[in-house]
Amino acid sequence: MIFMPVWLGIIAPRVASFILTYLAVYWVYLAGSHVFNLFKGYFKYEKEVAIDWYQKCLALDFSKLPSQEILPKDLSETKHLILIPTVREGFNILKDTFQALIDANYPKENIVIVIGTEEIGQEQVTSAIVELKNYFANKELPRILHYIHPKGITGEIVGVASPNRKWAATHAVEQLKAEGEDIKNYIFTTFDADW
Q1: Which of 77, 83, 85, 134 has the most CB atoms within 10 Å of its CB?
Q2: Secondary structure (DSSP) of 27-63
């Protein structure tokens, strides 16, 4: 098929020129369409980023929202559990993630950072957490929970973050419930340590 322009050009040059012209026009159309949609998406992104979503959430009347039985009474009761699985990530990798969380305009007292660490990297990550607390000592830090995921648990898949995430999330939920927290008021987010 790749040599079609050569052999078809010999057998039926008009057909080959029609096909090649069609493909060239089609590729130019696709490129133009892609560039147009890229700009369109960028301007939509800029518009959305400019909105203060936290203020919009504060303005919500929770009494008028559906599913009242599962919603918190207001935004001040809504908490955010952020789970970050780690293996051997050090201070320099985690620093940018923590900086982004500190810079967020969501109240720090409503954020819980859960760090799940694989046992093989616990010394490095534990040291990085201590270093992070010292580095950000003059800033308001969200609460940090740290759990070590033991290696060698039967049935777990080695090499993916899922067992680490599950381990940390399960233990964090157990701890929060033991402290009397209402888990249904938590929004759960997980992302890589180098986010």
Answers
A1: 85
A2: HHHHHHHHHHHHHHHHHHHHHHHTS-HHHHHHT--GG
Per-residue pLDDT at 163: 85
Question: Which residues are CB-contacts of 105 (< 8 A; sequence separation ≥ 6)?
Answer: 52, 54
Q: What is the pLDDT of residues 82-127, one digit of tens each?
A: 999 998 899 999 999 999 999 988 899 999 999 999 888 889 999 9
Residue 80, in any domain of the structure:
yes
In a shared domain, residues 123 and 35: no
Q: Same domain, yes or no, for 71 and 132?
A: yes
CA distance 32 to 38: 10
Compute φ and ψ for 155, nearest 5 degrees: 90, -10
Range of the domain at 143: 67-190
